[in-house]
Amino acid sequence: MVVMNTYSVTPEIPDDASISLAAYPELTRRLLFNRGITGQKEADVFLNPDYERDLSDPFLMLNMEKAVDRVLRAVKEDEKIVIYGDYDCDGIPGSVVLHDFFKKIGYKNFENYIPHRHSEGYGLNMLAVEKFARQGVKLLITVDCGITDCKEVARGNELGIDTIITDHHLVQENVPPAHAIIDPKQKEDSSPDPMLCGAGVAFKFVQALIARGDFEIAEGWEKWLLDMAGLSTIADMVPLQKENRVIAFYGLKVLRKSPRPGMQKLLRSIKMNQAHISEDDVGFMIAPRINAASRMSDPREAFRLLATDDAAVAGELASHLEKINNERKWTVAQMIKEIKKILKEREPKDVIVVGNPNWRVGILGIAANNIVEEYAKPVFVWGREGAEYIKGSCRSDGTVNVVDLMTSVSSDLFIDVGGHELSGGFSISHEKIHLLENEIVAAYHKKKRESVEKITLIDGKLDIDEVNWTIYREIEKFAPFGIGNAKPTFLFEGILVQKVNYFGKGKNHLRIDFHNSLGKIVSGISFFADKTKFRRVSFAEGDKVDIVAVFDKSMFRNFPELRLRIIDIL
């Protein structure tokens, strides 16, 4: 049984913290304190990111010196280099970071390689490594992958290929026998931020290469690469704290001015004003189109879009990504429709296990997210789509750790499992897929939590009159928002509903109009707002409601509108 989400307003800021933060307005002091910031110096650093001050020396990262020396030797001796990046919106932009560096220094004996999600899978691929050896490759640099690929790296060593791993995933007990591993999660690493994304690590690598190399590069040129590092930092949902906050902050600034034809064409295709890109735009509009390439087609198309200097090529690729992203949305909708039909016709169980050999593997996680939200049960969705093994994605409703659940079944059921408490993935043979549901349901009864209480802290209470641009500008100082730095959330009590309107093609988006004391309309918006989304399911014009919401700036048709994004109606 899952206990309904409860809300709690954070306590008042203590006097000593209020005095320490006296230079700031009351709301800013409260938001700083709620984020664990109690001193003025710490507050100044947080509210005013500085590139030179806040990004640490890249050589603090373990093995950076060794990795840099190896690349510089490869450049000096004109060795063939392959940059092997993951196929998502971390590995692809990170690969562009290294691509742009080698292009900038005039080095031509390199190529970028992005593996195919379905035919090659995640990480280094043995057949690809052997192909590189036949092509005379001497140095392989990974981006956002490689930290678990012991066999592939060892095979590269046998074939005369040195490997430099740049990654950010957890380091296992056995590490690959690479020439150098740059991963801030290594135990001996002394860099200050272990939570960098893959492109963030690649950016630090380029910083180090420029610092040591004798290149004719203008000072500060690498800042132009922050559009890619910032894009990935936001898209990969790493904590936006420490160096990640700085990379995301400046990444958005560079994105708003980026001369990349591919980015400009992509933004034009989705009718987005480049000068107003926000972290929400990255997460909900840009990243899904980059990821659509690997989910629905070839990830190299997304790489070429971001790396090309050719406006015509960029236009074609942007149009293609927009098209396949629309196909992705349609395919997901059809999959969800099919899942709902299957569930309607079968006996309900405590865990939803559903699949079809024809379902696209790359979009299973999206479907699983939708189903777990609607049915409030753990969900396992699988597909095959011509692959050797069946692959699946799973999501938890909070009643169980899905990785713990998968590892508690018969040891020979799964070929592979991975993930974390609420989200995971698995592979299983076609011969054993018929066992999956019974085994998972049986294990769930042993592992489930009898009750789960989720308490959401609210930053404070505000009056509807305080939904104004002055308050918004205070809140905006805390951007960019994301994991580890959530948008400030407020409780608005007893506000009168003036108008209720459902809009959109499926009439599934909600707009509620309120009036402030001056009679001015203040709107609250909630997307995909079915009746199960809110604690209060019935409200109409003339009712008084309490709402939990965040401030939201809309730039629809390039006109700024301040509104509320409704989280819950109480």
TrEMBL record:
GO terms for biological process: DNA recombination; DNA repair. PANTHER family: SINGLE-STRANDED-DNA-SPECIFIC EXONUCLEASE RECJ. Belongs to the RecJ family. It comes from the Bacteria. It comes from Candidatus Nomurabacteria bacterium CG1_02_47_685. One of its GO terms (molecular function) is nucleic acid binding. Residues 351-436 form the DHHA1 domain. Keywords: Exonuclease, Hydrolase, Nuclease. Residues 458-568 form the RecJ OB domain. Coiled coil: none annotated. This is Single-stranded-DNA-specific exonuclease RecJ. Residues 80-213 form the DDH domain.
